[in-house]
Amino acid sequence: MLNLDGRLHDTYRRAVMPLLKRRAVAAYAPHITSAFRRVTTELGGSVDVFPLVRRLVFEISAEILAGIAPRDTEELLEAYIHLQAPRPLGTAEGMRAVQRAVRARHALRAGLLAAARRPGGNRDNAVTRLRALDDRPSDLQIAENLSILLLGGYETTGYLLSRMLWLVARHAELQEQLRLGFQRKDPVGGRSLFDAVFAETARLHPPLAHLPRRSGVDLNWAGHHIPAGSHVFFSVLTAHHDPVLFPEPEKFRIGRFGVGKTEETPPGFALVPFGAGPRICPGVHLATLTSRLITQHFLEAFRMNADSDRYVADVTHNGASISPAGPLTITFSQHRERTSR
Ligand code: HEM
């Protein structure tokens, strides 16, 4: 879907959208909670949350969107990671990374084709919705759509959620306020403290930094001529770090958004982590609910602590997606009053 234009893009997008509407997504809460319990059973001590949360989010999206059971996700996730890994040219390690990527591509193709061919029963997911189209796509086309949905879902949400947990773990007072907010059942949409933390994390660390576009018309902009048809990038990262829109842009300041807001509201389209317009991310509700529930479960089960003297920067691998340049280490300890879960 991501790489298509025109009729086929619209058909596939329309087919899967009902699964991703706010109301449909609310029904996935039990899957999200049981994935959290499964993945964090043994959790304690100091842990790099990025791989942990990435796995958790992958299991959730694979089960919900593609009907892939958690026990079958390990090889697929590994394949995505190898495909995204850097391949330094002209080095022995680069060659090994290329070989791993080739094997990963085969594994991914086989795993997603198996998911595309699995009998759907009475499941409602992307496979059954794509199969039901009048002009039924081939198994390979379904597998390709699953590939984009899973990649688009786990990489972005996994990164943003681990960044958010790590930022929260650096601020003990904020952590406690969030925990109390969840206990009080602060509103799910709009005005909760969680929404402000989510928005500020997405501003500071947008998972997709630059969005590709094609100029529809001839354009003169800031002294540059951009002919119609040119490939251009809209930089979400640059917009989110514009000091005119967001004073002291490098600082994590939740006062910019939501409850306890202490600053002027940024103008419309200043905050665009999910893009905008007809290609806006269809997974926004799934990403938000997953992040909200998982944050709530972590805060209910654990006290989290991260070193606030050291900041972990980001690296971009392919110019678009981002990952942390080093471990996002959090030390987890169980709340004294809740030793059993
Ligand atoms: C925090 C999590 C996420 C972020 C920040 C994010 C961000 C984005 C952005 C910026 C775009 C491009 C929009 C544009 O070009 O204007 C996009 C597209 C897309 N996202 Fe997400 N996304 C997230 C989660 C998800 C999830 C959970 C799914 C899975 C359902 C998903 C599936 C997609 C797909 C399929 C597209 C392509 C849409 C199209 O071209 O019509 N994303 N996302």
From TrEMBL:
SUPFAM superfamilies cross-referenced by the UniProt entry? Cytochrome P450 (SSF48264)
Q: What cofactor does this one take?
A: heme
Task: List positions binding heme.
Answer: C281
What keywords is this UniProt entry annotated with?
A: Heme, Iron, Metal-binding, Monooxygenase, Oxidoreductase
What GO MF annotations does this protein's record show? heme binding; iron ion binding; monooxygenase activity; oxidoreductase activity, acting on paired donors, with incorporation or reduction of molecular oxygen
Q: Name one Pfam family in it.
A: p450
State the family it belongs to.
Belongs to the cytochrome P450 family.
Mind telling me what this protein is named? Cytochrome P450
